[in-house]
Amino acid sequence: MSRQEAFAVRGVSKVFIGRTPVHALDGIDLDLPTGSFTCVVGPSGCGKSTLLRILGELETPTTGTVTSNLTAAGRVPASAFVFQEHGVFGWATVLDNVAFGEQMAGVSRRDRTEHARYWIGEVGLTGFESAYPHQLSGGMRQRIAIARAFATGSPCLLMDEPLGALDAQTRILMQEQLLGLWERERKTVVLVTHAIEEALLLGDRIVIMSARPGRVKDVIDVPFGRPRRLEIEATAEFAQLKQDIWESLRDEVQDSLRYA
């Protein structure tokens, strides 16, 4: 495994055992370069989230291996998660939510508070440090989750439909914000999304997965340079690549509907 790879996934399969076994993933081979932004698209139920959880060691593969070169200081986890439903704590203030990861890692109150305030500012929530999640909009709550992930100091962010529950206008703003943060920090990011446009806007490359059991059907390098702006969505090249990805996905989505 090259030191330039954050993850090397080899022959990973996952079967969930129950009354009826569910074969979620089958023979996944994938290299994820350090500092890259990889987007994963595929039909519902194809194992995208399962793959993400295996990368983050929340699930273990039934067969196969995942090798990682990620390292983090002290008790800081190698990967931080951002989920679709925010994952913020309703009983904690914005400041305490953002500082939570470093609190669990044993970072001093002074340092974690300083880091939390910095990241709260970076996501545009300065002035809301003492607010509680129920007092904020959905977009603001998702900004808390993103700030907390960056504040942990983890070298990798694993993001599961982080913008999927937002309205269209808020989603655009959050895409811009996430682009800006990543381009400055250059963490390794793996983001699961159903939106082809979002994958093309954010990603260095796109992993297309088949219907369940999930397999890697294709890996597409995104040709647009960095820094990247929303204006690329108006280009003919963007439209053509979006159509090409949809053509690759169409049969997989149809297959997934047969078993829905």
CATH architecture of the domain at 1-71 and 158-166 and 188-260: 3-Layer(aba) Sandwich
List the secondary-structure elements in sequence, H or E.
EEEHEEHHHEHEHEEH
Portion of residues within helices: 25-40%
Query: What would CATH call the homologous superfamily of the domain at 1-71 and 158-166 and 188-260?
Result: P-loop containing nucleotide triphosphate hydrolases
CATH fold descriptor of the domain at 1-71 and 158-166 and 188-260: Rossmann fold
Protein name: NitT/TauT family transport system ATP-binding protein
GO molecular function, one term: ATP binding
Keywords: ATP-binding, Nucleotide-binding, Transport
InterPro entries: AAA+_ATPase, ABC_transporter-like_ATP-bd, ABC_transporter-like_CS, ABC_transporter_ATP-bind, P-loop_NTPase
SSE topology sketch:
Layout: E1 5-16, E2 22-33, E3 37-41, H1 48-55, E4 63-68, E5 79-83, H2 94-104, H3 109-122, H4 138-151, E6 156-160, H5 168-185, E7 188-192, H6 196-202, E8 205-209, E9 216-221, H7 236-258
Parallel strand pairs: 3-7, 3-8, 5-6, 6-7
Antiparallel strand pairs: 1-2, 1-4, 8-9
